[in-house]
Design brief:
It contains 5 helices and 2 strands; from the N terminus they run H-H-H-E-E-H-H. With 144 residues, the protein is an all-alpha fold.
Length: 144
């Protein structure tokens, strides 16, 4: 069933068919098997480009690494664990995750590596979400 009725002119008919194929490809659950990997590859490319081209903006990384340094040094009292942005307010899971990053990134100094780790984590989560869409037979991953 065509979403746009074809006109008598051949160019319009081709454009209408291309439009209908594009709509079908992006909304039909049977195409998600091929669309999801394409979206993930596109997103991975965009992540790499952003990390490569956009300068790093310090938000809380330095403070998190200061807090983790205190934690790995043995401090367990939340009131005493502080960084440049204040006291530690996140749960222990935050400390555990950032402790791993602390070690992986040379005590937080290798920010480029940290960005790639976060990019990989993002892509892993995106892959799980796409798999859920596919298993739920939801055709359009852009529509809520």
């Amino acid at each position: 069933m065509a979403l746009v009725s074809p006109k008598s002119r051949p160019v319009t008919h081709i454009a209408t068919q291309l439009y209908n194929y594009a709509v079908d490809f992006s909304t039909n659950p049977k195409h998600l098997r091929w669309l999801a990997p394409l979206l993930i590859v596109a997103d991975a490319s965009l992540c790499a480009l952003i990390i490569w081209k956009i300068p790093y903006t310090e938000i809380d990384w330095k403070s998190y690494m200061q807090q983790v340094a205190q934690f790995v040094s043995g401090e367990r009292d939340y009131v005493l664990i502080k960084g440049d942005t204040g006291s530690l307010v996140y749960p222990a899971a935050h400390l555990y995750v950032y402790s791993a990053l602390y070690y992986i990134t040379d005590e937080g100094r290798n920010i480029d590596l940290a960005q790639y780790v976060f990019g990989g984590l993002y892509l892993a989560v995106l892959s799980v979400v796409m798999a859920c869409y596919r298993l739920a037979s939801v055709g359009n991953p852009f529509r809520a």
